[in-house]
Amino acid sequence: MAESRLHELSARGQSVWIDYLSRDLLETGELKRMMEEDSVVGVTSNPTIFQKAISQGNAYDEQLKELLPHEDDAKEIFLQLAVRDVESALDLLERVHEDNAEDGYVSLEVDPTLAHDTQATYEEAIRFHEWIDRPNLYVKIPATKEGLPAIEDCIAAGRSINVTLIFSLQRYREVVEAYLRGLERLVEAGGDPTKVRSVASFFVSRVDSEADKRLEAIGSDEALALRGKLAIANAKLAYEHYLEAFSGPRWEALEAKGALPQRCLWASTSTKNPEYRDVVYVEELIGPHTVNTMPEETIEAFQDHGEVRGDTVCEDVPEAHQLLEKLAAVGVDYDDVTDTLEREGVQKFADSFAELLDGVRSKRGELVGA
């Protein structure tokens, strides 16, 4: 079979992951096909996807019937369902992980309603790692101010973490610092950093959605000319910090012990504005030691017409710095944009999770009454 566009992307050093998981994806062989044909080497789970799968189909009915006599807590029922899917995906990706320990991961996220509770987040992350004792499991923790200490503590405990919901460069710097401090604590305690991995999930398209809304409200020619530019610039500046943070004496000391860098993961890479190229958030952020986690439509679009031009994430970095100055000059407050996105992102995750649990309760009611 000829190498696909996504295989070409992978050859540049960027890992292709998907941002959804369901039982149908596993049982139909679709995930296996995507691994072979679309170069997919990782999966991140999503409560919204789970909610649709559980409420609309019957793929989970058999397991639900098994659980109902023993469990009535909607969250615990969901976790039992999700863990079975995660474990099946982990099995499928195990060979990938054995060949390359940075890939072959499946992510399960901590209850997003705990995003502002450091201790509860840490305890649930550790619980998931103990429940699914696999080397290729990532537990997702949101990069809130309260999430940062939990991330550091998990890394210090030797647990692999997918840090999610990163929007601002300042918060990304804090995420990197939490990872480095966690590794240093792990090493000081005699732990093995070679077993620990992390990705920093930097959200992309939502940044343009929020910034463009503000630029259009301003309405000047100068403001309108800046639409569709912040998301890519933001990610490029994050990658610039990645290159700086994982070099020099501090990092070299950890690297000598076997530690690996925390890779940048580009999340939310579907294009929200139909006026923009539908694969722009893939094409413009290609680079070594990165991950792009894509929804199904972006995978299909890139396979059809995506272009791999080189390490685009390293291009036009001075212009990215200048863009932040231009945005400030026309009246867009970058910090307020990213603060708003973090606040709304946490709320959206929590709302999706609540809807998911309502779906579990509804499904449970249907099966009990059947």
Could you characterize what this model shows?
With 370 residues, the chain is an alpha/beta fold. The protein has one domain (5-369): TIM Barrel, CATH 3.20.20.70. The protein is 58% helix and 12% strand. It has helices at 5-11, 23-27, 30-37, 47-56, 61-67, 74-99, 118-131, 147-156, 169-188, 205-218, 221-224, 230-245, 248-256, 280-283, 296-305, 317-330, 334-369, and strands at residues 14-18, 40-44, 105-109, 137-142, 161-166, 198-203, 263-267, 290-294. An eight-stranded parallel barrel has the order 1-2-3-4-5-6-7-8, surrounded by ten helices. The longest helix has 36 residues, at 334-369.
Topology (elements, then pairings):
Elements: H1 5-11, E1 14-18, H2 23-27, H3 30-37, E2 40-44, H4 47-56, H5 61-67, H6 74-99, E3 105-109, H7 118-131, E4 137-142, H8 147-156, E5 161-166, H9 169-188, E6 198-203, H10 205-218, H11 221-224, H12 230-245, H13 248-256, E7 263-267, H14 280-283, E8 290-294, H15 296-305, H16 317-330, H17 334-369
Parallel strand pairs: 1-2, 1-8, 2-3, 3-4, 4-5, 5-6, 6-7, 7-8
